[in-house]
Write a structure and sequence with these properties.
The complex is a heterodimer. Chain A is an alpha/beta fold. Chain A is built from 15 helices and 17 strands. Chain A has two domains: 9-281 and 376-457, Luciferase-like domain (TIM Barrel, Alpha-Beta Barrel); 297-372, no CATH class. Chain A has helices at 34-46, 78-88, 105-118, 133-136, 150-165, 223-232, 243-256, 281-295, 298-309, 347-361, 365-372, 382-394, 413-425, 438-442, 447-457; strands at residues 9-13, 51-54, 62-63, 66-67, 93-99, 123-128, 173-176, 181-183, 190-194, 199-203, 215-218, 235-238, 268-273, 275-277, 335-336, 378-380, 400-403. In chain A, the strands form five sheets. Chain A has an eight-stranded parallel beta barrel with strand order 1-2-5-6-11-12-13-17, surrounded by five helices. Chain B is of the alpha/beta class. Chain B starts with 9 loop residues before the first strand and ends with a helix. Classes of the chains: A alpha/beta, B alpha/beta. At the A-B interface, strand 4, helix 2, helix 3, strand 8 and strand 10 of A face helix 2, helix 3, helix 4, strand 6 and strand 8 of B.
Chain lengths: 458, 407
């Protein structure tokens, strides 16, 4: 008997504040007006997607001591916009990225529990960490956290939030108007947490929400991040959308689960993926090239080269050859508030390699940045893209994808209209929502159920 | 201040659970089992909008409700638990079109950076109907929920030590509001330029660091959220004494006060206006609203009976900072007009039982006031500032830039 087909999970990432988003396209709309979010969310729901995903950054990026002005800048507050989207959708999951460094567990737990109540069980939390003093300048604590402690804080933050979610069991509210008993249990919401990062106690004031706890995402890629996900997350927002790196990441993370007494289906791997669709594969390839050129203007190319060179390159012509000066190797970086620059661990070697590449291919600075930059993950006709996505999922490169369109807010429409029906025809994607909560869509058990299973197994 | 006639007053409703009386949930008309659903709040705010009210406020707190002033209790006969007020407001925003949405925000343990973008976002999702009501908490148990600081226990409310604690918390609230407001202005309205020729999405000269340094926090800015539709959403605060009057006078657009008669109203308004002058804001519009808890019935005896019944269920008369009104909609209209003559520009009514007294406000009090020419007959503006007769303010940083350029 052949292996049954896996069902694909699909999500929609609202276009972000980076150069993937092409704001210069005449079709590009507002990134801040609520109507854009409504359009995007309704498209995702029309296509029966699992959830909508919002990223977050708590300080505007800077480069060379000035606010970075070439990408989309500005976004709404995550919780607030998700709560409003709950009013204009019925089934779509609502996933927000919320930082564990510049928030406190009591407040975040009550915001997620509230969002879960107000959305009828559709909330999810992408737990991210940061440590930089740059972002800290906007917050009470400042840049208080040593880099090596960011995961220990994130772990304890999530554990503490879970204690708060679990401080109500769901059966406390009697609200018996006759007898006058509102609460069955005077101690509802009582909690005590003493740890390295948090020493708090008292009473949580939001009763148990429909999902018990929000669905938890993790996005970090380090060994520590993967271990955190294997121990505590329901899903990973990963960066490995290609087949082989995806399979290798998938195996690695799913193999870590047994240590924590968890089954492979209790952690979903959902890479972020961009796409370009055309009537034919050839047309899509052409279009994809155009999009990449639009994503990397001459000005953007110079700024991206500065990520490696770590010095002001504004005097260089983006259509000309690469700089002959070497990168500045320093702890201080010209770009601030951007995780990406840490990828270049040996800038001198990268510069050498890029000069050789550019010379061999006769590439200008802009050509080089385009060619070495991210290519869209799925390029082709709807049939090609649907087949590729399904092949990747069936080959365990992922459990589905979080799609990142390059146009706001209409960039998802063509995928919804042309690719989703093909996946539905193949029987690998839902034609109707079967449940009402995000846990239902993702096939994840309610936390109470998981607790019962563990007790039964022990 | 606006085209509304001077005889016209403003009306808001303060939403809290099933109503302000702790036994309100036991009334058959109440829906205590629905408190934690979106539909419940949508129904209340829609009802308020049906009555053409200026706005609703939504109570909140960073700990369970309590019958004690400063300590938690272990009572099981009253509502305990609530949802985040900003998120309730945001959840109902797309379902309404005109009414202002003013959630409570606690300054004592929250980040002004997060609050500023949350209210800015509420302003975006409501298309210009957002505000906030700033509140402090001196409760030691709520400080323990955060574990970042201890708040000294206040024993006697009027002792010098208590005064010091409360003054400090209000100073922090003033700083909090200052940061929230500066962040709203940290983007000029036309900062987003989308200039394809130069590849620039924003004109970064129109984004501003706020560089706030205070005793409790320092905030660099700019906000991650562009300037909201109203420019500055509404800031409001409840005030009972000199220290909070000062906060209202310096930082707010609306102060809620609790005089029990027209003479007191006149005196409170005078104190706030004096603080306003002292703060150099004499020329700026500042609303002073009277807070009243209301039991409304067509038959005054029914209102009194309801109050007695609920007090009996609660085991004690309801202790209220605000005047408790029991009577008919026409009697309440008389009282509001009398207090209005003492300088109050509007009222925030606290329904004793929201399921009963909110419809009484929207369907009986409002028509009564309309008949007297004292309340709007249709929404005359699309934004909360517009309803309150407040102009869209200039951006403080844009003004600085112009002044610098012309110097």
């Amino acid at each position: 008997m052949s292996k049954p087909l896996k069902q694909i999970h699909l999500a929609a990432h609202f276009p972000g504040v980076n150069n993937t988003t092409v704001w210069s396209d005449p079709k590009a709309g507002s990134h801040i007006e609520f109507s854009s979010f409504v359009h995007f969310a309704r498209t995702a729901e029309r296509a029966k997607f699992d959830f909508l995903f919002l990223a977050e950054g708590l300080r505007l990026r800077e480069q060379g001591g000035q606010i970075y002005d070439l990408d989309v800048v500005g976004r709404p507050d995550t919780f607030t916009v998700l709560a409003a989207l709950a009013a204009v959708t019925e089934h779509l999951g609502l996933t927000g990225t919320i930082n564990s460094t510049f928030n406190e567990p009591y407040e975040v737990a009550r915001q997620f529990a509230s969002l879960d109540h107000l959305s009828g069980g559709r909330s999810a939390w992408n737990v991210v960490t940061s440590w930089d003093a740059f972002t800290g300048e906007n917050f009470r604590r400042g840049g208080f956290l040593p880099q090596e402690e960011r995961y220990s804080r994130a772990k304890e933050f999530l554990a503490t939030a879970n204690e708060l979610f679990d401080s109500w069991h769901g059966d406390e509210i009697l609200a018996d108007q006759e007898t006058g008993t509102f609460l069955r249990d005077a101690k509802a919401g009582a909690f005590v947490h003493s740890g390295q990062h948090f020493d708090i106690h008292g009473r949580f004031n939001v009763p148990r929400s429909p999902q018990g706890r929000p669905v938890v995402f993790q996005a970090g890629d380090s060994d520590e991040g993967r271990e955190f996900a294997a121990a505590s997350a329901d899903a990973i927002f990963s960066r490995y959308a290609a087949l082989e790196p995806g399979q290798s990441f998938y195996r690695d993370v799913k193999n870590r689960l047994a240590t924590y007494g968890r089954r492979p289906d209790q952690l979903l791997i959902l890479p972020a993926a961009s796409f370009v669709l055309g009537d034919t594969d050839a047309e899509a390839e052409e279009l994809a090239k155009e999009v990449r050129r639009a994503q990397v203007s001459g000005a953007t190319a110079i700024k991206h080269l500065e990520f490696v060179w770590n010095r002001d390159l504004s005097a260089y012509d983006p259509e000309g050859p690469l700089p002959d000066v070497d990168p500045v190797v320093s702890e201080e970086h010209i770009s601030r508030g951007r995780a990406q620059v840490r990828m270049y661990r040996d800038p001198l070697a990268t510069a050498r390699e890029w000069r050789e590449l550019a010379a061999a291919n006769k590439w200008s600075i802009r050509d080089l940045v385009i060619e070495t930059g991210n290519r869209q993950n799925f390029i082709g006709s709807p049939a090609t893209v649907a087949r590729t996505i399904n092949d990747f999922v069936q080959a365990d490169a992922s459990d589905g994808f979080i799609l990142v369109p390059h146009i706001t807010p209409g960039g998802l429409d063509v995928f919804a209209d042309k690719v989703v029906p093909l996946l539905q025809e193949q029987g690998v994607f839902r034609t109707e929502y079967e449940g009402s909560t995000l846990r239902d869509h993702l096939g994840l058990a309610h936390p109470d159920q998981i607790g019962d299973d563990r007790r039964a197994a022990s | 201040m606006s085209s509304t006639p001077a005889s016209s007053l403003h009306l808001a409703v303060a939403l809290d659970g099933t109503g302000w009386h702790p036994a309100s949930w036991r009334e058959p008309v109440s829906r205590p089992r629905d408190l934690f659903t979106a539909a419940y709040w949508a129904d209340l705010v829609t009802e308020a909008e049906r009555g053409l009210l200026d706005f609703v406020t939504i109570e909140d707190g960073l700990g369970p409700q309590s019958s004690h002033f400063l300590d938690p209790d272990e009572r099981t006969d009253q509502i305990r638990g609530r949802l985040d007020a900003v998120l309730i407001a945001s959840r109902v925003a797309p379902l309404t079109r005109h009414i202002g949405l003013v959630p409570t925000v606690v300054s004592t343990h929250t980040e002004p950076f997060h609050i500023s973008k949350a209210i800015a976002t509420l302003d975006y999702v409501s298309q210009g109907r957002a505000g906030l009501r700033i509140q402090i908490t001196a409760r030691p148990n709520e400080a323990a929920h955060f574990g970042r600081r201890t708040i000294p226990r206040i024993d006697a409310y009027d002792s010098p030590a208590a005064h010091e604690v409360v003054t400090d918390l209000f100073d922090e609230a003033a700083d909090h509001v200052e940061v929230v407001r500066r962040l709203w202005d940290s983007w000029e309205d036309d900062a987003e330029i989308r200039d394809a020729a130069t590849g620039r999405f924003i004109d970064r000269d129109k984004l501003h660091y706020i560089d706030f340094e205070g005793r409790h926090f320092s905030v660099k800015g700019p906000s991650i959220t562009p300037r909201p539709p109203q420019g500055q959403p509404i800031v409001s605060a409840l005030a009972h004494d000199t220290v909070p009057y000062r906060l209202v006078a310096r930082a707010a657009d609306i102060g809620y006060v609790t005089p029990h008669d027209v003479d007191e109203a006149r005196a409170v308004v005078a104190r706030i206006r004096a603080e306003q002058n002292a703060a150099g804001r004499a020329a700026e519009p500042l609303h002073v609203f009277g807070d009243l808890l209301v039991f409304l019935d067509e038959d005054p005896a029914a209102a009194t009976a309801r109050r007695e019944r609920l007090d009996a269920l609660a085991g004690q008369p309801y202790p209220s900072d605000a005047l408790v009104f029991t009577g008919t909609p026409a009697q309440l209209a008389d009282l509001l007009q009398e207090l209005h003559s003492g300088g109050l520009t509007g009222f925030r009514l606290r329904p004793a039982v929201v399921g009963h007294d909110l419809p009484a406000i929207t369907r009986q009090l409002v028509p009564e006031l309309q008949r007297r020419g004292a309340f709007r007959r249709a929404y005359e503006a699309d934004t909360l500032r517009g309803l309150l007769g407040l102009a869209r303010p200039a951006n403080r940083y844009a003004a600085t830039a112009t002044a610098t350029a012309s110097a």
